[in-house]
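Database export, one record per block. Field names are fixed; values are copied verbatim from the stored entry.
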Amino acid sequence: MNGFLYFNFGLLLALLMLSLFTGIARAQEMEPRAYSNAPIGMNFLLMGYGHSNGALLFDPSLPIQGAEADVNIGVAAFAHSFEIKGQSAKFAMAFPYAGLDANGFIEGAYRERIVSGFADPSFAVSVNLSGAPALTLNEIRKYQQDTIVGATIKLTVPWGQYDSDRLLNLGTNRWSVKPELGISQSLGDWIIEGAAAVSFYTDNSDFFGGQELEQAPIYSMQGHVVYNFAPGQWTALNATYYTGGISKVDGIEKENRLDNWRLGITLAMPINKYSSIKLAVGSGISTRTGTDFDAILLAWQYRWGGGL
């Protein structure tokens, strides 16, 4: 059966991974196949479960030492493929619900925070600029990828649980936007990908006791080596580097510039022409400041429409 009946939606998987993290960690997602072509008019539903452990939720500006956190999260996400000026495009959104169990020391006193609720939702639009023409399902059966160049803009909305009297929350009480430019090159059964992005943050004027939190942009790069075993079955080795993000609290600059590396692996396998499952894991390998965590995500994808 043609491989595109087992189409794997990289952008939506990226939003699921993105929803595992809040604050600074949103610059860290690794997203293989985010710019792969898709039949126009196809819809995608993903349900995922993720677990993270480590300093993933902690802004380095926070006065927390020896911090550890366990996060369990369920995510529902939806995406739709469409056409823009003859090229394929995708819209995706993800809504996470999480439980956080964290502990650490604040000014020498041990503190624990247990909370559950909605985290900030994420929205993204991805447009392929060249190499991925808008095609129907019948037309895409004959499509062979060469070089794809695409762009994405991602938005997180401060709708998640937030309590300004607490240092740790599931929501961030601020907006973020992340423009990205990516490229994907097919080499037979292999695909080599790279992307560069910058994340911008609005100020949080109600940060811990009414303080104001400002954060400089975070600059990131990611790369992927993807191998296709069979139609719809692939694995990817992922790496990302991110830097910047110095923050200020009430105008006082913190010594918390990021200079971090992460590695990850993604595996996708089809169940039938409508469904597939994905497993993604990631871990920090070099961390200058904060956000040192391990994460795992298992997701089920169902697709319909577009002539399927």
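Remark 1: The chain has one domain: 3-305.
Remark 2: The two ends are 12 Å apart (CA to CA).
End of record.
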